[in-house]
Amino acid sequence: MPTPVKSVLPVVLLGCGGVGRYLLRHIVSCRPLHANQGVAIRVVGVADSSSLLVADDVHSSGLDDALLTHLCAAKAAGSPLSSLLGQVSGNYQLFRNPEARSKVIDAATKLGRTTGLVLVDCSATYDTASLMKDAVDHGCCIVLANKKPLTGPYEDFQKLVSNFRQIRFESTVGAGLPVIASVTRIIASGDPVSRIVGSLSGTLGYVMSELEDGKRFSEVVKTAKSLGFTEPDPRDDLGGMDVARKALILARLLGQQISMDNINVESLYPSELGPDAVSTEDFLESGLVQLDRSMEERVKTASSRGNVLRYVCEIGSKGCQVGLKELPKDSALGRLRGSDNVVEIYSRCYESSPLVIQGAGAGNDTTAAGVLADIMDLQDLFQRTA
Amino acid sequence: MPTPVKSVLPVVLLGCGGVGRYLLRHIVSCRPLHANQGVAIRVVGVADSSSLLVADDVHSSGLDDALLTHLCAAKAAGSPLSSLLGQVSGNYQLFRNPEARSKVIDAATKLGRTTGLVLVDCSATYDTASLMKDAVDHGCCIVLANKKPLTGPYEDFQKLVSNFRQIRFESTVGAGLPVIASVTRIIASGDPVSRIVGSLSGTLGYVMSELEDGKRFSEVVKTAKSLGFTEPDPRDDLGGMDVARKALILARLLGQQISMDNINVESLYPSELGPDAVSTEDFLESGLVQLDRSMEERVKTASSRGNVLRYVCEIGSKGCQVGLKELPKDSALGRLRGSDNVVEIYSRCYESSPLVIQGAGAGNDTTAAGVLADIMDLQDLFQRTA
């Protein structure tokens, strides 16, 4: 006999493209597992960039699993949420922007201080930040896979983490890898974290480790693109801004009151080859090769010292740096091959030899799994019913 | 202005030798940090193997920090708890065994279903198991660094984890390394863990990696002993039982309903050289060298295949094995040097490349830090007061 459900977690999801869609699939497929653990996740609303699908009565019911499954299929096919209207029956309503936003606030207001609500942000925009801040004011819990609300003005970060037990953001750094959770544990135990060094871009991890074999930079980047490891324009990876956002989140987690402006970010291409000057096509065809020579020299210089080059973020007493760094071949970061992420955490307990966490740090499935683990980790804040 | 305290966590600690003593020190030194996080840990009782020191009124007050500091100093000097009686003033009482045990149950009964209570086991005995089970019945939370209550009869394990949100046991495996927390997250996200492979003995990790350099087994074990890496009788490490206990905890966490009897444990010494047949001194002087030849051969055979030997536990669909295993030189386990622990976790999300967690897996400071992180992780189950 399964354990009767004890905790109900109402959820509103912002962003149901890649990660969000996988999250909904995971929620539906995990129902029996979660019931065994005494938890039921009730999805009361799902929003994409233009609309919100919300349950008729958010207090008493959620969107049913058949609807969520339809929704996932529609999003996978590239259709917007609004395409479901009229096609699928059920006890839901659809609101378009800008009304959709106020309806999310409605749900947050209704549920935040009664049953509780988890507002989950799997979008990739800065636009959700004010919504998330409002939700915090209404007593809601917050789970983010979206880095942007945490990497805007410091005041926004401060606001979002002001009730630290009600926010989780594991999937903003290293997808599902337990980096934030581990750093949070270490800090809570009074073991001061002195330094974090990480390779937090699967793309750049792959590129830098391939260079060791004597391959040319331009070739490796093109191969990475053909393997689907890069953004459509590889400069979005090579510029380092995505790594910088993750570094900023870690730095702020360690208590550094800094912003993107305070981070030294080394771009692997010069501004003359930037998106404003050169098209993606031209960059791939004739821009990249211009970088081969200098990269080859840097790799050789490192190698002559027994080191390898890695694109890392480093957060420590001197602030936060993002860029290429020479590292010993036999360190956790130096040994890294392929597209895994690696994070080294140094503290009193992990002083001479760091705590190392390594594994796949990207992918919709893994990122969504991290978000779901975060949601489940909030369960004790929700009322239990016998 | 510091945040006013919101959650009070009453704690009774069993075992205040090595790890327990460090825990008390950490609790005292973390007061300002925890106050900032809205948490106050109230130590209402501390027990060693013969006595219990308990606050006069467990409902309203704890043992004060001056007393806890005295207590740590006494235990560090090898004195029993009872030596404090009369020497240190304060609002506490001291009970000796067997009365001490019933007084712990008293506190559990009084606090378990009212303010809540965390019963922390930092002892190293099976004797606490029934006490911990009683505490579960009284609604208490449980935190263990002690492996033994979790590695006795399966029914005991089942009872202790029956309310899974109220138990933490991170420090039973890999000290403070976030192994249990990470596996629990992965399971909660519906990502089924298929296999865990780990090097969970710093001693055996050190011994096996040193053998690669061509050193003799007997020499390496003696060096490990002189460095303080082994138990007083190194056979306590070489027999593999400590690793087997950790493996059993991981296997049970993955849902395997097994017991120690079901684990194949390879001992690195034969029964003819066991404690019943040979004294520690004789084992070190003349027993160990008898093992050099066969170990040398096994290391060479592995090396000829590009592999290294590691003493690992492996938990998977075929149950649970503990012993020497040939592993690729360039795997996370194969690359391991020194006394770090390493755990590789395989699941759907971490299928071809595992999630790897590596770092110091022993030491009182680190183990106590893991226990404190566990206690802090329970805070949402305790009443908050404005």
UniProtKB/TrEMBL annotation, chains A, B:
One GO biological process term: threonine biosynthetic process
Amino-acid positions noted as binding L-homoserine in the UniProt annotation, renumbered to this chain: E231
Domain spans labelled Homoserine dehydrogenase catalytic: 178-376
Catalytic reaction(s) noted: L-homoserine + NADP(+) = L-aspartate 4-semialdehyde + NADPH + H(+)
Entry keyword set: Amino-acid biosynthesis, Methionine biosynthesis, NADP, Oxidoreductase, Threonine biosynthesis
Active site: K246 (proton donor)
Binding site for NADPH: K147
Official protein name in the record: Homoserine dehydrogenase
Organism whose genome encodes this protein: Panicum hallii var. hallii
Lineage of origin: Eukaryota, Viridiplantae, Streptophyta, Embryophyta, Tracheophyta
